[in-house]
Amino acid sequence: MVFLMGQIFPDNPNEVYADLPPGHIRTDDPLGIERSLAITSHLPPNSAKVIAACDPIKSKRQGHLVAARAQLDAHRDEIVAFKCYLGFMGHPCDAGYEPYYKLAQEYDIPVIFHTGFLPSTLALFSDCHPLEIDKVAVRHQHMKIVIAHAGNPFFMEAVAVAGKNNNVWLDLSSLQCEEEARAILMESELPAAMPNFAVAVFREAITALNRYDRLLFGTDNICSPKTYRRFMERLIPEEHHSKVFRENAEKLFKVDVPEVVPGYGRYGE
Question: Quick check: pTM over 0.90?
């Protein structure tokens, strides 16, 4: 299952995605996004769902939430979650996010929070630290919450929040990129640490949590899904693979992914 996030791309996407064939940059998005990647035609049928990006500034504008509700009503089977880009777009307790939290609970869809490492020196760790998610989890105990990237590098804090709150899951995406992941797959033993990833701390944290029903595999980085899955399989005990790599996400996001898709093979392999 591929989750597509609604977000605005850079002004010069042809430079960023220079390796894509011509025609893969769209400029006619019906939702008004300036540019996006036309990748859905290359995915298995019915395999793409939408994660809607929350904007705490736009939510204060008259009519914005009415439009958001209309989108949810019109595309209820396609929109499976909201995402808040903390660090870039405020703190999880910002008033501008509260209307989205109400919608998420009303429509029973999870809210995903970016946490941990940030690619900008202007963004604030204090806004996207996993301990800040605890405040939201307590205030909205009926809202399903996903801590993206497991709080990297704050793994212990992230598992503390997930262990305390029954409405919190941890997403394991974007912990490593292609080159490093491929190199490690050639080694018999995983190192204690890699660039931007404290492997030993992560393993200790998820072992201490001991809630593999609360872990969600994801990619979300410059790494092929196949490589990243094989890398993460080294970190997750084999007896929990079915939950972490498939069943937990199916249950949380209410999606039904066929084990094998004709013409495409088995998901995640």
Answer: no
